[in-house]
């Protein structure tokens, strides 16, 4: 009798927890959220842009005090573990979190991403995703890196594909968010995918892929599709 099929053996040692660290890139830095340092610039960048919070669990916020109180709550959490996206001038204009952390399975998710309009479609916005993915795979030792979003959030779904995540399906009636039913779209990349994804990120981020005004010459999705 043939034995039942099983998966290949893997290193079963647990991955590491995210830490307070600064991930430096060419366009800026991804830093552990620190409300005294990042709070005011985040508020200034996000204030008045209520649509940024449509698919989020929290927000929009009535005023600076409400936003600051929410940030203080975020800062002390271990999961989600929040980072600020900071430009070269030292101003924070976005948030992202490593979350749903399962060190024993070596699975982690990138989520709670909020980018101010001024940060969207910039080199820093993409570079931040590269820095966090590289940190998760190469420093912390995760083998699966997930991206999940409301299935109706077309912008997030396009972003996941552009960044090199593979679409895996829809979980129906997965959550209740702000009193509404949410179907969730699942995406992921694995440690097996990462070498090719890393190479495309590095090709996209290369200085010669940007013109004198800082505009990309070739899009990241094009590099991923070619790879």
SSE layout and pairings?
Blueprint: E1 22-24, E2 28-32, H1 35-46, H2 64-75, E3 81-87, E4 92-102, E5 107-115, H3 123-139, E6 144-150, H4 154-162, E7 166-177, E8 180-190, H5 194-205, H6 220-226
Parallel strand pairs: 5-6
Antiparallel strand pairs: 1-2, 2-3, 3-4, 4-5, 6-8, 7-8
Helix pairs in contact: 1-2, 3-5
Description:
It is a single chain. The protein contains six helices and eight strands; from the N terminus they run E-E-H-H-E-E-E-H-E-H-E-E-H-H. The chain has 227 residues and is α+β, with helices and mostly antiparallel strands. It has one domain (22-226): Aminopeptidase, CATH 3.40.630. An eight-stranded mixed beta sheet has the order 1-2-3-4-5-6-8-7, with helices on both faces. Strand 5, helix 3 (123-139) and strand 6 form a beta-alpha-beta unit. The longest helix has 17 residues, at 123-139.
SSE ordering: EEHHEEEHEHEEHH
Quickly give the CATH architecture: 3-Layer(aba) Sandwich
CATH class: Alpha Beta
Number of strand elements: 8
Question: At the fourth CATH level, what is the homologous superfamily?
Answer: Gcn5-related N-acetyltransferase (GNAT)
Count of discrete alpha- or pi-helical segments spanning 4 or more residues = 6
Distance between the termini: 41 Å
Total domain modules? 1
CATH topology: Aminopeptidase
Please estimate the helix content. 25-40%
Share of β-strand residues: 25-35%
Strand order of the largest sheet: 1-2-3-4-5-6-8-7
Shape: globular
Mean pLDDT: 96
Query: Gyration radius, to the nearest Å?
Result: 18 Å
What can be said about the biggest beta sheet? 8 strands, mixed
List segments where confidence is low: pLDDT < 50 over at least 5 consecutive residues: none
- Helix and strand content put the structural class at alpha+beta
């Amino acid at each position: 009798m043939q034995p039942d099929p099983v998966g290949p053996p893997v290193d079963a040692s647990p991955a590491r927890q995210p830490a307070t660290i600064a991930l430096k890139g060419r366009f800026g830095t991804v830093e552990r959220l620190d409300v005294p340092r990042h709070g005011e610039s985040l508020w200034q960048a996000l204030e008045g842009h209520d649509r940024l919070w449509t698919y989020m669990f929290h927000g929009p916020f009535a005023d600076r005090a409400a936003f600051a109180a929410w940030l203080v709550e975020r800062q002390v959490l271990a999961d989600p573990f929040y980072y600020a996206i900071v430009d070269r001038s030292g101003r924070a204009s976005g948030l992202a979190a490593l979350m749903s952390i399962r060190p024993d399975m070596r699975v982690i998710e990138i989520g709670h991403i909020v980018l101010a309009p001024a940060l969207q479609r910039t080199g820093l916005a993409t570079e931040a995703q590269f820095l966090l993915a590289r940190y998760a795979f190469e420093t912390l030792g995760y083998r699966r890196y997930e991206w999940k979003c409301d299935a109706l959030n077309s912008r997030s779904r396009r972003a996941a594909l552009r960044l090199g995540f593979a679409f895996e399906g829809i979980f129906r009636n997965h959550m209740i968010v702000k009193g509404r039913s949410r179907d969730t779209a699942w995406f992921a990349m694995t440690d097996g995918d990462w070498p090719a994804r890393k190479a495309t990120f590095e090709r996209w981020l290369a200085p010669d892929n940007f013109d004198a005004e800082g505009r990309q010459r070739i899009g990241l999705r094009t590099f991923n599709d070619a790879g």
